[in-house]
Design brief:
The chain has 12 helices and 16 strands. It is an alpha/beta fold.
Length: 347
């Protein structure tokens, strides 16, 4: 709870009194004496307690508001806006789901920013309402906003953005907003690093085309409806590749139990559960991976590297590092993240 005893105004100091007020309040927040949403004394009360002019206290509160340390509520007064370390760069980092891939991006981002940054991770589970609620709570409280936009409809279809989300993002200055993974549908008032989902898979499979000639059917396992849906642009890029090369292909929603596997089938899996189910069935049916059945997995992980699974994948570490570099060096740009075909034992 706030106490005037915790604020020291030194009349003999060469530091202006309004800055002494600013420092005193910040020190109280850092020490834990002032909590988030706690009400501060009114300007009148503060000026009377220390025999200061209203202008002096008003100037101090204005500086604290500009730093997003406090907020004013009309008719109610001033409140503490945040209690995180105010000497650090504060970043709101919003992702759509908690996964190995997302955490690799997040960790690379945090490590590149270094110890002078505080990164507040929020997960909104592809839900527009949850995103907007978290966004409203954080509005004005951070130095930078990093958003990885992936949303879903009631029918579990993927959306990169919604009208309400786009409107909310548009209120943030371009130098404070950074988008990851997806681009805004229109406009230039943002910066970010993105995947080109359709062309990424198309280009990666083109690099693998020569080795694919030994397979008679290409099967993409793409979950049409998922709790965390995938961009259909992946599907479009796959179809484009197969049609241009006159390949026999099928698309399934999942790897079914007792899937009929035929020699010279090449599977491309998106979700981890389908990858594991397929590997299990290949083993149970005494088929040999890469000899009888080919396998390519979407998105690389350390376990896939360890077990020799061929992948087509964006570079998650590079995405996090590039985003952090943009903030550290105030770069305003839109950068396509590297996407690679990594040939291993399964293909």
């Amino acid at each position: 709870m706030f106490s005037f005893e915790q604020i020291e105004i030194n009349a003999d100091s060469r530091k202006p009194k309004y800055l002494q007020i600013v420092d005193g309040i910040i020190e109280n927040i850092q020490a834990g004496y002032l909590k988030i949403d706690e009400r501060l004394p009114s300007i009148n009360n503060f000026s009377e307690e220390f025999y200061l002019s209203r202008d002096t206290v008003e100037k101090a509160y204005a500086i604290l508001k500009d730093k997003n340390v406090i907020v004013s509520v009309k008719g109610k007064g001033y409140y503490v806006n945040r209690t995180i370390l105010l000497s650090k760069t504060n970043v709101l980092f919003m992702i759509n789901k908690l996964s190995n891939y997302k955490m690799r991006i997040y960790n690379a981002f945090v490590n590149t920013l270094g110890t002078n940054a505080y990164v507040d991770l929020k997960i909104y589970h592809c839900e527009e309402s949850l995103f907007l609620n978290l966004w409203a709570k954080g509005a004005g409280s951070y130095d930078y906003y990093v958003v990885m936009p992936h949303f879903k409809t009631d029918e579990l279809l993927h959306l990169s953005y919604t009208e309400k989300v786009t409107k909310a993002l548009s209120k943030v200055p371009v130098n404070k907003l950074l988008l990851m993974d997806n681009k805004l549908p229109e406009g230039d008032n943002y910066r970010g690093i993105y995947q080109d989902f359709e062309n990424d898979i198309y280009d990666a499979l083109n690099k693998a085309f020569k080795k694919m000639s030994k397979y008679e059917k290409i099967i993409l396992v793409f979950p049409e409806k998922s709790v965390y849906p995938y961009p259909k642009r992946i599907l479009h890029g796959f179809r484009k590749f197969c049609v241009e090369h006159n390949l026999d292909f099928d698309i399934y929603n999942e790897v079914y139990d007792d899937m009929i596997l035929k020699p010279k089938d090449l599977f491309i899996t998106i979700e981890e559960s389908d990858l594991i189910n397929l590997l299990k069935q290949i083993k149970e049916k005494n088929l040999v991976l890469s000899k009888d059945i080919g396998l390519i997995s979407y998105n690389d992980t350390p376990l896939k590297e360890l077990f020799g699974i061929t992948v087509i994948s964006t570079d998650f570490k590079a995405m996090g590092e590039t985003a952090a570099d943009m903030i550290l060096n105030n770069k305003i740009a839109k950068v396509k993240n590297p996407f690679r075909f990594i040939d291993r034992k399964s293909f």
